[in-house]
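ok so for the tutorial part 2 we go from a plain amino acid sequence to predicted structure tokens. step 1 is just haveing the sequence, like this:
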Amino acid sequence: EKVVISARVANVETTEIVSTSRISGDLDNLFTLQDDLARDLSKDLSLNSVLFSDDNLDVSKITFNVYSELNKLKELAHGLTFFHLDPARKRKKADYITGINIADELLEIHPKLYLAYYYKSLFSLNLENFRDAEKYAELASKLNSKDVQSNLLWAGSLMQNSKSEEAEEILNKLTGSNQKNSIAWYGLSVLYQKMGMDYKALECLINSLNGNSFIPKAYSNLQTLVTSTSLGNIDSYSGEDYYNCVNLLNEYWSNNSKKRKDLYTLAEKVNANFFGLFIPYFIMAQIKMESGDLQSSESLYKKSLKLCPFLPEIHREIAKVYYKTSRCKLAENHLNIYLNNASVVDDFEVFEKLKKKCN
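step 2 — the prediction. this is what the tokens look like for a chain of 359 residues:
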């Protein structure tokens, strides 16, 4: 099947369309297409973000060479995050130093170019020069207070310098102004785990995944923390809704098949409070599938997939439904997405049997 993915970026204050992108290709390559679209958009944003500065940088003086250098910095920074150091940072040390040198050259020409300070901070962070990272991130944030990325980086560098209260204040402001800022919620979860506040960390991980951009690390951390932390009582959480959610996840991920059939009502209750969270839909779909209700199972898997199209496990399970209902081509499409994106595949024989029965 062929798909077309399109997106546009707009300035929310002026409603001006900043850029548009359109990608087409095979459904089998959905994740590749999404990556291509994101890459196109990020290139546009890396250029246009220079226009939005608190200090009204004279854009007419920005040359194409500056744009080119900013893109070099973006490429050098690919894969770096705000709250974890790059595992390969020792091997990439030369790249980070090169990036800092490029940023310094840009700042000689444009001292108020906040993106140059942003990249200096990001590279300094992974060189483990945490004081420099904090200083440059703060400068970037002050030059452009509206830039979310700079504020996230500032919070991350503060965390590395054990300034938990200051980092918490920045991240709380970000989540307060945008409840769907999944990275800020994730950052708070990392901070609270470091502070030994596991229940608050659990709540932040749930918020990070509730209708927001899917962060694989948030999902894996949620699984780890739920299964390694005692449930506690309702008073351990800020509300009963979070207690119910953690209780549901704990029971489901404990693989207690005897209790699983009793989780449907609890999953419905959690879904009512966290309607942007894909996991309750997935759990309800699993329960319906195990009971033989393939029609209800399919509907629930689709709802889960709509909220989180990036999780290979959902594609795996809906592929089973399609095979069992003789929609072999649809099943194969989702199976390929699962096989191409899952970190571990240990059920290949199951699908071989389903394929043979599908007609």
